[in-house]
Amino acid sequence: MRNKRTLAIVLGAGIAPLLTVGLSAGTAQAHGYITSPPSRQAQCAAGTVSCGSIKWEPQSVEGPKGLRSCSGGNAAFADLDNDAKGWKVTPVSRTTAFNWRLTARHATSTWQYYVGATKVAEFNDGGRQPGATVTHQVNFGSITGKQKVLAVWNIADTANAFYACIDVDIR
Q1: Which of 9, 71, 95, 100 could be bridged to 134 by S-S, CB 3.0 to 4.6 A?
Q2: CA distance 102 to 151
Q3: Helix, strand, or coil here: 129?
Q4: Along the 171 residues of the chain, how does pLDDT read in single tens digits?
């Protein structure tokens, strides 16, 4: 009887770490968001602005392609759509680098950047898998002042995209 109990404890101790690794793998498989200039997700993750559950998974703002919302249509991340939430505005130049941190590197069709209804930049990856970080130089042309930039990462092999909004002051 004692040997059976010891075996159960040893097996239980050996399985628990495997379960923990297996369960946490889902979170690690997340996706991506803009870290610089700090997106609304990055501000939530850093605690700069209080935002609910997005703090724990800033990389998960995913929704159907073609949306124009910061939350990607995800009700759990609706705080990202609230323009009055106190988002910090980052001063930027007319040509600015946007840096994505990708926690799951999906095959990519395009990356798009919008100010209001105007698409200001698009980068075509042709279905390639990006690296763990991606940087785009976006030229705002004649657009100046305080603006909300919507960045969209369109995935090549699904109907979904990832969304990020960045509050900037273009000078």
Answers
A1: 100
A2: 14
A3: coil
A4: 545 444 444 444 444 443 333 333 333 344 899 999 999 999 999 999 999 889 999 998 999 999 999 999 999 999 999 999 999 999 999 999 999 999 878 899 999 999 999 999 999 999 999 999 999 999 999 999 999 999 999 999 999 999 999 999 999
